[in-house]
Design a protein that fits this description.
The chain is α/β, with parallel strands linked by helices. 30% of the residues lie in helices and 25% in strands. The protein has a single domain (2-269), classed as Nucleoside phosphorylase domain (Rossmann fold), CATH 3.40.50.1580. Helix 4 (160-172) links the parallel strand 6 (124-132) and strand 7. The chain is globular, with a radius of gyration of 17 Å. The structure holds hypoxanthine.
Length: 270
């Protein structure tokens, strides 16, 4: 994998991608974050050597290089999920590439189901911790020291400074945000009422099908992570309703303007 990462990095550097300040992963329905990026380059994943190609609607599969609030960012419009059939090593390959392009800080976003009764659809949660319940682990197998250590410290999966800064940005802009724990399941089924209950009993506030493998791989390489989750449906006791990908995308859209504002202001400050 190391050789493949370097090959992809070389390809992107030759396109003029360098001096990066942030990597950004855009989740379901949050693709329009791109609208606030001064785009310099747009590269479809299919043209990038070794990149997987995403198959999910609403995840268009383009790497975007440009300026956001004056900083150089590399944004993934479209991410890779375990349920698509990728191994978690494949799904997190772009995070490896980001690191070797010189990125030390990433912002990851997703849509999630809320299981905390204080949460409402369309609200935003800053992820302050996660629970990994994916059936696979991106670091399983022989460890390559060129990426990081065998046993990875996870005492601060989401960088506390970044979290505090983002909370301040939200407060200053009157954007309501929660903080809480995101639990990752494999999907692609949404949860049954009993599964939502399990998620809540495990100590999580939201549940989704992504992000955690990316953060694990980022931490393996000692990167700092900020996680933003948009609550698109609720898995509350006695109130679990029908949910669809379309409904999730629609609900994510309602928060899009606020998420854009948060990220824009956050990047400006750092
Ligand atoms: N469960 C899992 N993934 C999700 C959900 C959910 O309720 N909502 C958006 N992504």
């Amino acid at each position: 994998m190391y050789k493949k990462v370097l090959e992809t990095v070389k390809f992107l550097e030759e396109k003029g991608i360098n001096n990066l300040d942030y990597g950004i992963v855009l989740g379901t329905g949050l693709g329009s974050l791109v609208s606030i990026i001064d785009v310099e380059l747009k590269i479809p994943y299919s043209e990038i050597p070794n990149f997987p190609v995403s198959t999910v609607e609403g995840h268009s599969g383009t790497l975007i290089f440009g300026k956001l609030s004056g900083k150089n960012v590399l944004a993934m419009q479209g991410r890779f999920h375990y349920y698509e059939g990728w191994t978690l090593q494949q799904a997190t390959f772009p995070i490896r590439v980001m690191k070797f392009l010189g990125i030390e800080r990433i912002i990851v976003s997703n849509a999630s189901g809320g299981v905390n009764s204080n949460f409402k659809v369309g609200e935003i949660m800053l992820i302050n911790d996660h629970i990994n319940m994916m059936p696979e682990h991106p670091l399983r197998g022989e460890n390559d020291k060129r990426f990081g250590q065998r046993f990875v410290d996870m005492h601060e999966p989401y960088n506390l400074k970044m979290l505090e800064t983002m909370q301040n940005v939200a407060d200053n802009n009157n954007i309501k945000v929660h903080q809480g724990v995101y639990l990752a399941l494999q999907g692609p089924t949404f949860e049954t009422p009993a599964e939502y209950r399990m998620v809540r009993n495990m100590g999580a506030d939201t549940v989704g099908m992504s992000t955690v493998p990316e953060v694990i791989v980022a931490k393996h390489m000692n990167m700092d992570c900020l996680g933003i989750s948009v609550i698109t449906d609720l898995g509350l006791e006695g109130k679990v309703e029908e949910v669809s990908h379309e409904a999730v995308q629609e609900a994510a859209k309602t928060a899009e303007k606020d998420v854009c504002k948060l990220v824009e202001e956050f990047v400006l400050k750092n």
